Structure to design on (296 residues):
C-alpha cells in the first residue's frame, strides 16, 4: 500500500512538472501583427501574425540556454476586427536549439483572389543561414502553394506583383559575411515557372510602373527594366533608399505606390506600435482593431 502511494505521488509530481514545462514554454512573450492589406471589396483585412516564445529550458539544455520558437500565421478578419480566421500557418524549421520563422511581406493580387507572402525560416543558432520562400494562398485559405524558394546564405528580401497578376519580381540578397550583402533582381511567372535573373548588378526591385511595362529597381540610382528583355530603359539619380527624393522619383515614373487605403478611399489601415490600426480619413479617428503583445 505504501509503495502504491509513492508511485501515485511520483506520477503526480511528473505530471505537474510536465504541465509547468508546457505552460512556461508555450506562453508567448511577444505577438506581432504586420502587413495589413484590404480586400478588394473593403470588407476584410488580411494580415500576418507572429507569436514568439523564449524560455530557459533547464531539462533539455545545459546552463538554461534559451530555446526560441516563433509560429507564423496569415490571417483575415472583418474590417471592424471581428471574425478572425487563419488562412495559412508556418512553424519554421526545428532543431535542438531553435525553430523560427519570420514574414517579410504580404500582398494581395490585382484580382483580389489570392494573397502572396514571403516567409523566412531560420535554423540552429545561425541567423545568416535561412530558407526564404514566396507562397500564394486563396483569400479563403485554400490552395496554398510555393512559388519560389531560396536556401542557405541567399535570402529573398522583397517582392512585387505585376499589375496584370502574371509576374512576380523579387530581390535576392547574398549574406556573405553579415556585412557585405550584394543583391540581384529576379523575375518569375505567377505560377512559379520561368524563374530567371534580370539584373545581376547590385540592385533592389522597388516595384512596377502602373502599365506593367517596366520594373523599377533601386540601389545607388533608380532604374527601369524591361521585364521581357531585362534591358535598362532609363535611370534616375537618387540620393538614398528612401525619403522625399526617392518618393518623388517613384511618382515621376508612374510607379505603383504602396497604399493601405480602403477601396472606397474612406479608411486607412497600418501596423502601429500596439497592433493594427484603422483610421477614418474624414473624422481622423483612429481605432486599434487588434492588439499585440510586446516583449517585456
Amino acid at each position: 500500500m505504501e509503495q502504491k502511494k509513492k508511485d501515485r505521488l511520483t506520477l503526480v509530481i511528473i505530471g505537474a512538472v510536465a504541465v509547468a514545462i508546457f505552460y512556461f514554454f508555450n506562453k508567448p512573450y511577444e505577438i506581432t501583427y504586420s502587413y495589413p492589406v484590404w480586400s478588394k471589396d473593403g470588407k476584410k483585412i488580411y494580415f500576418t501574425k507572429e507569436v514568439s516564445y523564449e524560455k530557459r529550458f533547464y531539462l533539455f539544455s545545459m546552463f538554461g540556454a534559451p530555446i526560441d520558437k516563433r509560429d507564423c500565421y496569415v490571417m483575415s478578419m472583418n474590417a471592424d476586427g471581428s471574425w478572425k480566421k487563419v488562412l495559412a500557418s508556418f512553424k519554421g524549421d526545428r532543431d535542438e536549439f531553435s525553430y523560427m520563422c519570420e514574414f517579410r511581406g504580404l500582398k494581395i493580387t490585382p484580382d483580389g483572389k489570392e494573397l502572396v507572402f514571403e516567409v523566412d525560416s531560420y535554423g540552429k543558432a545561425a541567423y545568416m543561414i535561412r530558407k526564404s520562400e514566396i507562397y500564394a494562398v486563396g483569400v479563403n485559405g485554400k490552395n496554398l502553394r510555393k512559388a519560389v524558394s531560396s536556401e542557405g546564405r541567399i535570402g529573398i528580401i522583397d517582392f512585387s506583383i505585376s499589375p496584370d497578376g502574371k509576374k512576380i519580381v523579387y530581390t535576392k540578397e547574398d549574406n556573405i559575411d553579415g556585412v557585405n550583402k550584394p543583391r540581384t533582381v529576379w523575375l518569375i511567372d505567377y505560377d512559379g515557372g520561368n524563374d530567371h535573373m534580370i539584373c545581376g548588378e547590385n540592385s533592389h526591385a522597388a516595384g512596377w510602373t502602373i502599365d506593367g511595362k517596366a520594373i523599377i529597381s533601386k540601389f545607388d540610382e533608380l532604374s527601369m527594366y524591361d521585364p521581357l528583355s531585362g534591358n535598362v530603359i532609363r535611370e534616375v539619380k537618387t540620393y538614398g533608399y528612401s525619403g522625399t527624393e526617392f518618393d518623388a522619383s517613384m511618382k515621376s515614373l508612374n510607379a505603383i505606390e504602396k497604399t493601405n487605403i480602403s477601396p472606397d478611399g474612406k479608411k486607412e489601415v497600418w501596423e502601429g506600435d500596439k497592433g493594427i490600426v484603422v483610421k477614418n480619413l474624414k473624422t481622423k479617428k483612429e481605432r486599434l482593431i487588434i492588439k499585440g503583445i510586446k516583449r517585456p
Remarks:
- Residues 30-294 form a domain with the Neuraminidase fold (CATH 2.120.10).
- The chain has one domain: 30-294.
- The longest strand covers residues 44-56.
